[in-house]
Structures are given as C-alpha cells and as structure tokens.
C-alpha cells in the first residue's frame, strides 16, 4: 500500500504549485497548461481535502467564487446567446480556463464546456460538507449562478472534457452537470437543481446508452475512459450497476493497454495517444469502490511505476501508443508531455485514499506488488 512518504510527495507537489491567488496551474512547467481549469483544479482541491488540507482547498474555492463573480457577464452572455440559438462568439464565451490571477483567456481554445463548472459545483458542495462553516454570501451567489447556468444549458452542445467535438452532447459532460446540480440541490435544498439533475439522469439513460453501456457522445457508439466519472465522483450511475459494469468492461477491453495503462479513446492522436495516469488511477478508484481490490492495486502499481526521476507524474506515458506517428509532431510543437500534471497527482492521491479506507474497513493489508 502507499507509504506516507509517497502520499506526502504528491501533496507537497500540489501545495508547492498552488498560486497565491488560490488557483492551480494544470501543469506549471508546460506552457499551454500554465492556467487554471475549473475541472482540474476541483479534483486537485478535492484530493487535498481528503488529506485534511482544508485551507488550501478553501483558497481554491475562493478563487473560483471570485472568478465566477468577476466574469458573471460572460456566464450570462454565453447562456443568453445559446438560448437564442445564435452563434457563440469566443469573446462572448465563459472560458474553461483562466490565468492564475483569474483573467479570461480568449486564444482560440475550445472554451464552451459544462463539465468544469459542474465539477466545481460538486467539489465546493463536498468541501462545505467536509469543513462545516457558514460561507460568505458571495459563495452562495456564485454557486446559485453556476447552478442556474447548468440548468439552462445542459441540453445544448458544447466542447467535451478534452476540448473536442463542440457540436455534440457528451455523456461525461452531462454526468458532471448532474453531479454538480445534484449536490447543489441536496446541500442548498434547491428544488430546481434537483429537478434538472433528474432530467439529465433520464436523458442519459434514454439517449446515452448503447449496447448496454454508456457512449462517449450521443449518436455515437464510441467508448471514452472519461465515462468512469459517471459513477465516481458524480453518481449518475451506481458503480455496481449493470450499465456501469458494462462500461467499465468495455474500457478494460478496448482502452486498457497490455501494461495496464488507460487510453482516452481509440482515435486519440494527441502525443501519439498514450496511456493517461489520471485515467488509470480513476479506473483503480472505481475498482476499489466496487470491492475489486486486486484490480485497484494493479492500477496503483502502474501509476506508481510512472513517477519520473523528479518525483513527478506526467499527463501520459508513451510506453504503448495508439498513434505513434503523431508523437514526434506534438513533441516538436510543445516538447515532452506535460509533467508534472497536477490532475495526475490528484487522482493518484484519490486512489490511494480510497484504498486506505478499504484497508481500514476490511483489516486486510497488501503489498504494492
């Protein structure tokens, strides 16, 4: 099982790179990722929360609140433009990422995404439940504004969590919106959010299931490893449900390499379509929650074997590539794959936390092998 030294190393990396503003860069050393995504940062804050780093998590959520309220006009502009059926212009869009001091970036990135705000709404609700306090009125306002945005726009296309396919509805994006709205409805006793979450659940079951398992996007039979999020943490499906079991099995069959690492999706060419650390840890997390401990430990061993000489976890490895001819192109453009990727370290911590909880509950001890 993970040692305290290993856990502390991951925690220290996350804490070291938290900006004074409270934001987290997706990767502090990889120029395209030196910005804060609501999605990545929320998972990082949640990982810190699990290990008692409440103050650091609180600072991140304050950054989110400040950023949302400072740029509320962009939320409203995005919502109103889409509801009118007009073409969404980049300057009207609420970005998926911001500079670390909370400024919007309009640089051609695939910005209009729902999963980041859905993830934050879930994470901030979890934060307030784990660290009971009376949040300032500005927190309530930012949460209500985010919930209203998700309630209005979940039915409309957006970019997926990989910043691709802007003209589709994506199962992972809807799962994140569901998780955020469900958590907000429960903690704030907000019937509108609870009702919207119920509508999303029904819609996904009706339109997002193919061959008995979830599909990457509606109207497609593709599988995507991000679908693990439909179970954990967002709770759209129970981890042991038939649909989630078949989804997990398809990810095992089609996206898991011989060494145990997990690819994003079969047509992936980014950096050659390597194995992603965070997705492998995510799969281990789901196995742990399902009581499949050998598989969870195998995922943990693979993740731990991906730590580089600096103690960092990258975004992905190149041991097994789906499209090896594309790797040199990306390395020529941007250099090596992002490392450290804070989301990778965060998911490793989440997997380790859940395995430690299982160990405590069962009294079983394991080696790392």
Can you lay out the helices and strands and say which pair or pack?
Layout: H1 4-16, E1 36-37, H2 38-50, H3 54-70, H4 72-84, E2 97-98, H5 115-130, H6 137-153, H7 171-188, H8 191-207, E3 209-210, E4 213-214, H9 242-255, E5 275-276, H10 277-289, H11 293-304, E6 316-317, H12 327-334, H13 342-362
Helix pairs in contact: 1-13, 2-3, 2-5, 2-13, 3-6, 4-6, 5-6, 5-7, 6-7, 7-8, 10-11, 10-13, 11-13
What features would you describe in this structure?
With 369 residues, the protein is mostly helical. It has a single domain (4-362), classed as Alpha/alpha barrel (Glycosyltransferase), CATH 1.50.10.10. 52% of the residues lie in helices and 3% in strands. It has helices at residues 4-16, 38-50, 54-70, 72-84, 115-130, 137-153, 171-188, 191-207, 242-255, 277-289, 293-304, 327-334, 342-362; strands at 36-37, 97-98, 209-210, 213-214, 275-276, 316-317. The strands form three sheets. A two-stranded antiparallel ribbon has the order 1-2. The longest helix has 21 residues, at 342-362. The model has no long low-confidence stretch (mean pLDDT 94).
Q: TL;DR of this structure?
A:
With 369 residues, the protein is mainly alpha-helical. It has helices spanning 4-16, 38-50, 54-70, 72-84, 115-130, 137-153, 171-188, 191-207, 242-255, 277-289, 293-304, 327-334, 342-362, and strands at 36-37, 97-98, 209-210, 213-214, 275-276, 316-317. It has one domain (4-362): Glycosyltransferase (Alpha/alpha barrel).
């Amino acid at each position: 099982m993970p040692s305290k030294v290993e856990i502390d190393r991951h925690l220290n990396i996350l804490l070291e790179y938290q900006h004074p503003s409270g934001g987290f860069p997706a990767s502090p050393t990889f120029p395209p990722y030196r910005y804060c995504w609501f999605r990545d940062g929320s998972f990082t804050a949640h990982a810190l929360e699990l290990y008692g780093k409440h103050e650091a998590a609180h600072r991140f959520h304050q950054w989110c609140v400040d950023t949302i309220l400072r740029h509320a006009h962009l939320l409203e502009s995005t919502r109103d433009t889409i509801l009118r059926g007009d073409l969404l212009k980049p300057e009207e869009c609420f970005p998926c990422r911001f500079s670390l001091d909370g400024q919007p970036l309009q640089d051609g990135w695939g910005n209009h995404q729902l999963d980041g705000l859905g993830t934050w709404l879930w994470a901030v609700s979890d934060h307030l439940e784990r660290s009971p306090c009376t949040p300032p009125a500005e927190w309530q306002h930012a949460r209500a504004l985010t919930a209203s945005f998700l309630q209005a726009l979940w039915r409309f296309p957006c970019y997926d969590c990989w910043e691709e396919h802007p003209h589709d509805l994506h199962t992972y994006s809807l799962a994140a919106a569901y998780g955020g709205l469900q958590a907000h409805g429960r903690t704030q006793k907000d019937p509108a959010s609870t009702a919207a979450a119920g509508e999303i659940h029904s819609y996904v079951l009706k339109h997002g299931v193919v061959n008995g398992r979830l599909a990457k996007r509606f109207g497609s039979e593709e599988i995507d490893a991000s679908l693990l999020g439909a179970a954990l943490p967002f709770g759209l499906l129970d981890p042991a449900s038939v649909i989630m079991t078949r989804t997990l099995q398809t990810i095992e069959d089609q996206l898991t390499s011989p060494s145990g690492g997990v690819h994003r999706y079969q047509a992936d060419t980014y950096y050659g379509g390597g194995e992603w650390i965070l997705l492998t840890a995510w799969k281990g997390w789901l196995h742990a929650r399902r009581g499949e401990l050998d598989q969870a430990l195998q995922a943990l061993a693979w993740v731990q074997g991906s730590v580089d000489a600096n103690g960092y976890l990258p975004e992905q490895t190149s041991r097994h590539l789906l499209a090896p001819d594309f790797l040199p192109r990306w390395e020529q453009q941007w250099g090596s794959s992002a490392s450290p990727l804070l989301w990778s370290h965060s998911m490793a911590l989440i997997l380790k936390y859940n395995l430690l909880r299982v160990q405590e509950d069962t009294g079983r001890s394991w080696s790392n092998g």
